[in-house]
Amino acid sequence: MQRVQFNELCLGVPIPFDVFDTEGTLLLRKGYIVSYQGSLDRLLAEGVFRTDMTGAPPSTKAPMEEPPVPTVELMFHTRHRLGRVFGGILAVGKVAGFPERLRDMAGAIQKAAAQNHYAALAGAYLDVEASYILQSHIQSALITEILGKSAGFNSEERLSMICAALSKDIGMIEIHEQLDRKSELSDVHRIVIKNHTIAGYNKCEELGVVDGLWLDSVLLHHERLDGSGYPRKLNGDQLAGATRILAIADCFGAMVRPRPYRKALVGKDALRELFLLKEQFSTDLIQLLIKTIGVFPPGSLVRLANGETAVVVRSTEDRSHPLICSFINTSGMPMVEPQSRNSTQAKYAIQSMEPLEKYRVHIHGLLKLWL
Fold this sequence. Notes:
The chain has three domains: 2-50, no CATH class; 71-293, Orthogonal Bundle (Hypothetical protein af1432), CATH 1.10.3210; 301-370, no CATH class. Helices cover 44% and strands 11% of the residues. The chain has helices spanning 37-46, 71-92, 98-125, 132-150, 155-166, 176-179, 187-206, 212-220, 241-255, 267-276, 283-293, 363-366, and strands at 2-3, 19-20, 26-28, 49-50, 301-304, 309-314, 323-328, 334-342, 350-354. The strands form three sheets. Strands 8-7-6-5-9 form a five-stranded antiparallel beta sheet, with helices on one face.
């Protein structure tokens, strides 16, 4: 065996060979993509090996089953894959095997949520390196899975719903980069946005999608219960449960991510805004979402009564008092390691929520809390 050198493994690039530990146990298969820097650093620090140039196996010992991919890394890997699909559509207008590739990604989202939906939510929310279009689609897909499962949809139905969430804005994919740079919307942009659900439906059909639930969800995810949505001005019972779920997931994802022409809302405020729009959205589903992810969603940054800044790790039975870890002390200095705090205690009570961008430099370290 030959020890793998630091320049032989690259973040976000398929591994060109099988990777083994010192005993010859298979760790990662050829083609696997490491998407999280911490995992790459750990592999190289502990020492991993590949076969020699003749291709002889490092050991006669049968390879053990691959360990599960950490949830946060699985979310980042899925985002990276979605980025390649969107890149292909932008470059040449199509991508081979689009329905199959998105269903495979949808399965990865389901797997991440099943492994640890708190870690998956944190990974999606704290993915500050992702572009708006990728982060929005990944977060919407995850919330669709979590909310759909809680609402009683079966696994196959949820796969279709997740696929719709992953392709919901494909009808305006060409202008997303422009929207990331514009301080206000032009009339042309408004027209494209208004028509993007129909364009998205048509584009998905063009790319080979025949799943009716998937297509209908893409077409109708901007309809509202009070009839104020588009493109068909449907209302009430005309809107299926899957459509109502994607509408909420899409709106929440948009609220918590900034655009030049609008500020981002912190998680708690976004949930409050959704609740205030009860004429447009299903109140029962919003309450179910709060019950599932908590008043303070995982990954949210909060200021405590004693002046520390903390990150929400997961909700508890008391949705208003999540499990938190402080990472900035009372003097405003970073802690060596995040410290667990009991948010039911007066001095560690959550006083307010903090904007994500303010603490961007700390995100990489915080993500280790869910590994």
